[in-house]
Write a structure and sequence with these properties.
mainly beta, EGF-like domain-containing protein, 2 helices, Notch_Cell-Fate_Det, secreted, elongated, three-stranded antiparallel sheet, 403 residues, single chain, Laminin
């Protein structure tokens, strides 16, 4: 750019100018047209350049130029340059001889921004906003941590990726910094005609009557159960339906069905379509009186079940009796009979003894028993039963043998 020195023509002169005296100014001229009264250049005798700038004159076209020192700029070197580098560890930014910014690192640090410490950071630690990282050569150095402070928004996590970072967004957010809220209602998540309302990082479903749940997926028509008499509630086409138990009908199973029983005995009574004997009677024709009834008196014993229709007890295996009070020993004690088989009836368990034995458990020999009914006597051998129980003497020709 060429600079011309001219006389200030008037106070109303609007040309871009820099005052250098009471009646002189430096005008920036890109094209000189109809311009008058140029002063003779004085070869920078007065040195109008500031901050140590050097004035250089071009005699041929009557112009001059300020050569600014390092750290200054402008037409007259009037402006100080701003060092754009952000040096770490409180180091100072300076300009090189060619005017390029540079961090002036001390001996303790290195790197373009003085970010690498010369002392192992695992020992000395790092400054705020830095992280101790493994660099080339197997050394640990303090490096600027792009995740301190966390640039990610809405509780997103920050991860270092080389010289930059990456945000892992939480549910409901997106964007480089997770700054954008996702409108979940765009995907119509709510069911059963519910209204979707977007919220920060989430959404809310406004359910219609009869529905509930996060997305209104659950029907409340059967909760609480509208069916009476243990009817089972189900939902069909958005409406509840009652499946009634036997003997009940209507939309909510509130009406009892009067069914005919066709009872075979005049003494039987019809209850919900079932023929039952009145209290105190039992049997096919209800003509057998009950001396004891589990309905009127105490309950069945040993886990027996009271039959409402008859008033009697249904006994579990191994028990018998009106109240299931008797034990079937054949089952409980396996086979208690020593020399016989266990059988049971309504009167209890009994032993059916083998020939030659008697007693409750067939535990002793019968005195009137003929041993030859139980053993074969051949070859002229006679078998006699002596007083010793189970001791027999065999009389043979020429002697005897006691087994």
């Amino acid at each position: 750019m060429k600079v011309y020195i001219a006389t200030k023509l008037s106070d109303s002169d609007t040309k871009e100018q820099v005052m250098i005296g009471p009646s002189q100014a430096i005008f920036i001229i890109t094209a000189v047209q109809n311009w008058y009264s140029f002063l003779t250049l004085r070869h920078c005798e007065s040195n109008v350049c500031l901050n140590g700038g050097t004035c250089k004159v071009n005699d041929q076209d009557r112009t001059f130029q300020c050569l600014c020192p390092v750290g200054f700029e402008g037409l007259l070197c009037e402006s100080e340059k701003v060092c754009s580098l952000k040096c770490h560890n409180n180091e100072v930014c300076i300009f090189t001889d060619v005017g390029k910014p540079k961090c002036n690192c001390s001996e303790e640090f290195s790197g373009e921004l003085c970010e690498v410490g010369s002392i192992d950071c695992q020992v000395q630690g790092c400054s705020t906003g830095e992280r101790c990282m493994l660099v080339e050569g197997g050394r640990w150095r303090c490096m600027h941590d792009a995740c301190i402070p966390n640039p990610c928004q809405h509780n997103a996590s920050c991860t270092l990726v080389k010289d930059t970072f990456k945000c892992a967004c939480t549910s409901g957010f997106e964007g480089t910094l997770c700054e954008n809220d996702i409108d979940e209602c765009m995907t119509t998540p709510c069911k059963n005609d519910a209204v979707c309302v977007n919220s920060l990082g989430s959404f809310i479903c406004l359910c219609k009557d009869g529905f509930r749940g996060t997305v209104c997926e659950e029907s409340t028509l059967c909760d609480p159960n509208p069916c009476f008499n243990n009817g089972i509630c189900s939902i069909v086409d958005g409406l509840y339906h009652c499946n009634c138990q036997p003997g009940f009908t209507s939309d909510r199973c509130q009406e009892q069905i009067e069914e005919e029983c066709n009872c075979k005995s005049d003494k039987q009574i019809c209850i919900n379509g079932i023929c039952k004997c009145p209290d105190g009677f039992m049997g096919k024709d209800c003509d057998q009186p009950l001396s004891w009834s589990c309905i009127r008196n105490e309950s069945c014993e040993n886990g027996g079940t009271c039959l409402e229709a008859t008033g009697g007890c249904l006994c579990p295996p191994a028990f018998t009796g009106i109240r299931c009070e008797h034990t079937l020993e054949c089952i409980v004690d396996s086979n208690p009979c020593i020399h016989g088989n266990c059988i049971w009836s309504a009167n209890g368990a009994t032993c059916n003894c083998e020939n030659g034995f008697e007693g409750k458990y067939c535990e002793r020999n019968s005195p009137e028993f003929d041993p030859c009914l139980r053993r074969d006597c051949n070859s002229g051998v006679s078998l006699f039963d002596l007083k010793f129980i189970s001791s027999l003497v065999f009389f043979l020709s020429g002697g005897f043998l006691r087994p």
